[in-house]
Design a protein that fits this description.
binds flavin-adenine dinucleotide; 407 residues; 8 helices; 20% helix; 26 strands; alpha/beta; 5-stranded parallel sheet; globular
């Protein structure tokens, strides 16, 4: 009987458990998790602080998930070390848990900017349920908030704070919001929508320091100006959470944990998936870490099958972000920022309706697409990118509503 140990109960860990149970009913599964909670969804945390959902709404599996899947949960217990030689993990309470197959799915840690005053009270990262609870507690005493970072987390957080009537300002060092994924024109559509919703967007600016007496009271900018704030949310991305591998030299690490196309690390019976893993990217041909939910889910699922001895290949992924800005949906797939001269670009826009749709083609294959305001054919476009299908013959209908693609 195999002993499986899964570190983490985010989408990567949970999908791995479900995959294992599809093919192995007997094996022992232990799920070790630093946080004391049932599996919850980080993308839903902004909606919890915005009051659109209650706390119970963030959990993405039912209470009896562990019993139904015959899994031993070890919740609220942080892993401090992985010992691949002795095939065991060691937790903060000194517990040693042996494994035959190990999955590391420990996600990411928020990036902490080097800013004076970052340790003040009410400066928050919003990446965990505990952090979201802290923000929710602070909301009634907050008139103004500063959000550092213009990525999806920051923008969603800003809109949620607006729901409480808080004066929310997003401060972005780069010239546009979501600069990692959006091109200039698509960012303008999103910035306009944010401003229409009452969110202040300050691009090309940086917070140099946070000041206050115990709790944050003011943000100081690079030009010396200041704005008052009783709450700061930092959304500057995440770095893979793998410090417990410091002694496990056999597990190869670059930015994230390096995995092959079976999600296997450099140690045969150790796998990694989700935000902690560095895996193959279809478009660049290189490996990278892209911290998004669908990628974590799929990787966990594929890893689970492989751990159970049912070989399954992970074909690789491409960047994909999907967000809704209060009725203006935005889906970005692949790369829409870097456009070479030999690429073809198809664009449709309707500024009055916040519609902007753009597809980038190279040699008949889609490299990237930004679909904003009117969502059409994203399932198909996503698959065309993923499988690198030549769409030359029907490219003019890619953005048409009611198109049907058979492939
Ligand atoms: C506020 C917010 C909004 C987001 N919005 C979106 C969105 O709109 N769309 C999207 O695609 N993605 C979004 N994301 C990103 C998405 O949530 C992640 O990509 C996804 O959760 C990664 O899944 P994972 O399973 O790899 O790790 P995680 O979900 O991060 O789970 C990691 C697990 O590992 C546990 N763990 C960590 N360290 C240890 C340790 N040492 N020992 C034991 N257990 C440990 C943690 O407690 C946790 O349970 C958002 C993230 C945040 C924070």
């Amino acid at each position: 009987m195999r002993r499986y140990v899964i570190l983490g109960n985010g989408p990567a860990g949970i999908n791995a458990i479900e995959a294992i149970r599809k093919v192995d009913q007997e094996g022992e599964i232990t799920n070790v998790c630093a946080e004391p909670y049932l599996p919850y969804s980080r993308p839903l945390l902004p909606f919890f602080i915005g009051g659109q959902i209650g706390e119970e709404g963030v959990f993405f599996r039912p209470e009896d998930f562990y019993r139904e899947h015959n899994v031993t949960p070890v919740l609220g217990e942080k892993v401090l070390e992985v010992d691949p030689q002795r095939e065991a993990v060691i937790t903060a309470s000194g517990r040693r848990i042996p494994y035959d197959q190990l999955l590391i799915a420990t996600g990411g840690n928020p990036r902490k900017p080097k800013v004076d005053g970052i340790e003040l009270k009410n400066v928050n990262y919003l990446t965990t349920l505990d952090a979201a609870r802290d923000v929710a507690r602070q909301v009634p005493d907050t008139k103004s908030a500063v959000i550092m970072g213009g990525g999806p987390l920051g923008l969603k957080a800003a809109l949620s704070l607006r729901h409480h009537g808080i004066d929310a300002k997003v401060v972005v060092r780069s010239p546009r919001v979501m600069s990692q994924v959006l091109d200039g024109e698509s960012a303008v559509v999103i910035e306009k929508k944010l401003e229409d919703s009452g969110v202040g967007v300050m691009t090309g600016r940086d917070v140099l320091a946070l000041e206050g007496n115990g709790a944050v009271r003011e943000a100081v900018f690079d030009d010396g100006s200041r704005i008052p704030c009783e709450l700061v949310i930092i959304g500057k991305g995440v770095t893979p959470n793998l410090e417990f591998l410091a002694e496990a030299k056999a597990i190869r690490v670059n930015w994230g944990i390096i995995v092959n196309n079976h999600l296997q690390t450099s140690v045969e019976n150790v796998y990694a998936a989700g935000d902690v893993a560095e895996s193959y990217d279809i478009l660049s041909g290189k490996s990278n870490v892209v911290a998004v939910w669908p990628r974590a889910s799929e990787q966990g699922y594929v890893a689970g099958y492989n751990m159970a001895g049912f070989p399954k290949e992970y074909v690789g992924a491409h960047r994909m972000n999907s967000l809704d800005f209060e009725g203006v949906s935005c889906i970005v797939m692949g790369d829409v920022r870097n456009i070479r001269q030999d690429y073809k670009v198809i664009v449709q826009r309707d500024k009055g309706r916040n519609v902007y749709q753009k597809i980038i083609l190279h040699d008949g294959k889609i490299r990237g697409a930004a679909i904003i305001g009117r969502i059409v054919n994203v399932g198909g476009i996503n698959r065309f990118i993923r499988r690198q299908i030549n769409v030359e013959a029907f490219k003019s209908s890619l953005l048409e509503e009611r198109s049907t693609f058979i492939y």
